[in-house]
Amino acid sequence: xPTDARERLLQGAEELFxxxxxxxxxxxxxxxxxxxxxxSFYRHFAGKDELVYxxxxxxxxxWHAWLEETVTAHGGGPLAxxxxxxxxxxxxxFRGCAFINAMAEASDPHGEIxxxxxxxKNKVTALLDRLIEEQGHPxxxxxxxxxxxxxxxxxxxxxxxxxxxxxxxxRAIAERLLAAPPVEPVPV
Amino acid sequence: xPTDARERLLQGAEELFxxxxxxxxxxxxxxxxxxxxxxSFYRHFAGKDELVYxxxxxxxxxWHAWLEETVTAHGGGPLAxxxxxxxxxxxxxFRGCAFINAMAEASDPHGEIxxxxxxxKNKVTALLDRLIEEQGHPxxxxxxxxxxxxxxxxxxxxxxxxxxxxxxxxRAIAERLLAAPPVEPVPV
DNA sequence: GCAGAACGGTACCGATCGGTTCCGAATAAC
DNA sequence: GTTATTCGGAACCGATCGGTACCGTTCTGC
Lengths: 188, 188
Prior knowledge:
The structure is a homodimer. By secondary structure, chain A is mostly helical.
């Protein structure tokens, strides 16, 4: 547990927001849980909106680092992202993707939250692109977007079905996308 | 515009909840928009929670009916669900799936909202199952679950990318799942 | 050792939250 | 035409929302 108030706020907020939703967690609760004084909070953040922004930025960085690590731990291939997803979906406190959830409870589709979510997903797509290109696939970009769609589908499905089943199903689909020729076999 | 207060409340709430989120819409706003008196609201619903429940039930029924219609209008095959999805994602006020969004902003993963969302998705999966079986596919159940995952992936992707692109991408994947043999070609 | 920053606690603000109660008008049933 | 129901409007409730200001203490840099 860090002694820095700002760090404690970010850490506590990331956890509470993810577990119960951003709107569901008031500043009051956050202060009570983190043990930070009200004044200290507003010394570090202009308001709740800025805290939300900082929390999402932080989560983006951490989550991306976690994914890269876990993918490496699972062999480093593009399919490993689904192993990582399955692993995290097995966790008791899995609640889907923080950015998808944030979009879902954001009122303004043109606000900062959607921008951050897009940024986050683009970064993940770029990682997928790299992983697939390393396998020598010519159409890596299109495949990366398909993989991203599969990951998000598995993530929201895992929210309600619990466990790694959805991720494994997505992995099976991805496997076939990697194996089979893109649309029509090139005529000889 | 229906004259019945209950119907007006359900209709207004469904729209507001979908556009801005359930937590973001207070009873106050809802009453102002629908022109219903405060007392009338609590005559028809025990509280906001019961209204949310009724709205989701209503949406489930309407959405399912809409999907069946639209699928028929697009030829009736299982792939038509992605055409329907693309069509709705083109709309200006498209905000993803109301049930995924409701789950995302629900605090309790074991509460009623998750139960309703599961019920909803199971019904859609059953419809997919039927459509795929009508095509004569032996493993229709597994395919239906894969299609459901693709639909949800396309839906959450369309929230941030706007337009029918994600749905068309999901359709392309689904097409290959239908065409190719499931895992390994049966050895002759 | 001392100055200044960072801290937690508390009182307070207006606004809004979900919810209750009473009232008078409109409407529908018989 | 009278009775019974449904309706919208408004006053009010305690709780909580996000946010501000001031307090005294603790910790740190020099």
